[in-house]
Amino acid sequence: MPEVLLIRYGEIALKSPPVRREFEGRLRRNILEAFLAARIPCTISSDHGHLYVHTPDAGSAAPVARRVFGVVSVSPAEVVETDLPRISERVVEMVRPRVTTGARFAVRARRTGNHPFTSQEVGARVGEAILNAFPEAHLHVDLGKPDWEAFVEVRGPKTYVYHERWPGPGGMPLGVAGPVGAHVDGLRGALGAYLLMKRGCSVYCVAEGEGVRLVKEVLSRFSPSLPVESADNPQGAWEHLRRLAETRGLDGVALPLDVDEFPPAREFWKDVVVFSPTVGMTDEEVSRRWSDVVALAH
Q1: Which of 48, 83, 153, 204 has its CA 20 to 30 A from that of 261?
Q2: Count of Cβ atoms closer than 10 Å to residue 122 Cβ
């Protein structure tokens, strides 16, 4: 059973040290909040470029972690001491269920720290151990188009071995940017809200029609405490959203507009910043990108 989740982040690593510490702290809190909502116990540790989520069943917990904004990818991993024979032994046992006759495989090795071997030597040693362990399977090494892969990350005295990389939403941790309101009345509005959440904005959703279901069934999967209010009232969604902007001190609003709708929107919202992340997308592109969001949510 995997012992830990390797959490990788991307853009956060490009920030200055003070900002990076702040953003990583926010990412930690968001992961803890997601696990708390899922009622999964966990603790988090870190080193340069990775977070490690320790939980009783890392494999089952991976879908929770991969829905947290800021997370680029997640891998349920096993931890072994940094010793080449021990690493090779553990990888052989890990890949045993995946071995089929004539399969092509690759070992991807990375190394951080000072060691008496290179990353290439780790990959070669582990690959040789796999070939020797299953001679009857007639396996082949294929670094270009393997049927399956084994990953080895040597990080100081500990080494992490795994065979899966689950993609996350990437972007920035939710909450590192200012609050915005979003009108969600369908796919275009829902995707716009998602894209602003991905940039770290705390989003207040005003939903109506099909948007109510999209928020509750999809967007809320990425933020357990996502605020949502119904716009099914005589005043209309924009009036509802304007009152919300005033009472919550929102930095702007996200609207599902096309180009022709911008002039009347600017007249209505006046000095309020208006976002429309999907304005340049066709309906087909919106549908395709939303399908990716739904797949990630579940």
Answers
A1: 204
A2: 24
Structure tokens at 37: 């909502």
Instruction: Quote the CA–CA distance of 66 and 44 in Å, as a whole number.
Output: 15
Q: How far is it, in rounded angstroms, from Cα 44 to Cα 27? A: 11
> Against a cut of 0.85, is the pTM above it?
yes
Residue 92's DSSP bridge partners are none
Assigned CATH topology for domain 83-156: VC0802-like (3.30.2130)
4-79 fold: Alpha-Beta Plaits (3.30.70)
Are 197 and 69 in contact by the 8 Å Cβ rule? The answer is: yes
Chain centre to alpha carbon of residue 1: 22
10 Å Cβ neighbour count for 67?
19
| 251's tokens | 């930095």
The residue type of 88 is S
Number of Cβ atoms within 10 Å of the Cβ of 229: 18
Residue 158, helix vs strand vs coil:
strand
Question: Cα separation of 22 and 30, whole Å?
Answer: 12
Helix extents (H) in 220-270:
237-248, 262-269
CB-count exposure of residue 131 (10 Å: 0-12, 13-18, 19+)? middle
Residue range 177-297 forms a domain whose CATH class is: alpha beta
The Cα 29–Cα 32 span in angstroms is 5
The pairing of strands 228-230 and 201-207 is: parallel
Residues 175-184 pLDDT 10s:
999 999 999 9
Residue-wise pLDDT for 101-132, tens only, equals 999 999 999 998 889 999 999 999 999 999 99
User: d(Cα 15, Cα 23) in Å, to the nearest integer?
Assistant: 9
Q: How many other β-carbons are positioned within 10 Å of the β-carbon of residue 130?
A: 21
Checking DSSP bridges between strand 104-112 and strand 140-141, what pairing results, if any?
parallel
